[in-house]
Amino acid sequence: MRSVGVEEELLLVDSESGEAQALSHAVLARAARDSNGEDDAFESELHRQQLEFATSPHKDMEKLAAEIVQWREQAARHAETLGAAIAALATSPLPVSPTVGTGDRYQWLEEQFGLTTQEQLTCGCHVHVYVESDDEGVAVLDRIRPWLSVLLALSANSPFWQGKDSGYSSYRSRVWGRWPSAGPVDIFGSPVAYHEQIDAMVATGALRDDGMIYFDARLSAAHPTVEVRVADVCLEPSMTVLLAMLVRGLVETAARQWRAGEPPAAVPVTLLRLAGWRAGRSGLDDQLVSPLLMRPVPALTAVESLFEHVRPALEDAGDYDEARSLLSRVLREGNGARIQREILARTGSLRDVVTECVRRTARGV
After folding, report:
1. 191-203 and 134-144 are packed helices; what angle lies between their axes, rounded to 10 degrees?
2. Residue 304's domain is classified under what CATH number?
3. Does the predicted model carry a pTM greater than 0.90?
């Protein structure tokens, strides 16, 4: 059984207006004071309107779910003392002027990348899954490539940008793609080739260090994990758990294929980019690019093909029934993007969208 950990980026918003607020330093100080400096789950992010937390690794998905709820609730409590709230939104529905953090790294990014850095107020979800070695990890990266766009479509939770409907289900993915190191990658074939490519990228001088390797999925530099970074932060905790189940299933399935001598699908990066664009555009509400055929199919077909692909791994991990239930719910009720648009259609107010999403963030429905 592989362990799984999750990193989530959350939006800090004003409790009354719903507008994003640059309060991360104050929230972090409050969290440190309340825990006597012993709680290091929370971290700052690129913009001061964001707050990040990371869970411990878990093999039991119930424990992972409980920790996600725990940190979301604690973040909400710390923010509340400052007249703010947290929202698991991948972009701010309301207009915002993002404030870049004060650290040396963030200042370097702003100097080097200008408007790209200033506009990167986006919140993602990163799923870490244990791998035994770099050999296994790179083999996994090579084999999960075609499936990552479906994870993006499922998690899509950013339809609004600067007070307007972007026309996308995940506009975060379009903004994030402005980084020169972001997106899908070629097949590496070996750890040596993987690390040589990263070294070559850093050597161009365009990147500060290997922490700026923003691939859709990569080997973690800090943990023995594959880190899948393609998803929007999910509106409700249960959706994050579903994402973690599917990612663990993908990693285990890919590792089994590698051990069985099955080669990775030779899908070119050009097609993976188009599949990612379509997933960001459509979410679950239109066609997606089939990971198997690289042709347009209904979103339901693409999602079901992913589920069947990882089904043996889900069954072996004891995740199948819960994953099936959670997936049925998101297909029936919609992902975060659809929910946000339905709230706007019902209320006519982006402020009400934020208010309802704040309510759903800690415990869902």
Report:
1. 80
2. 3.30.590.20
3. yes
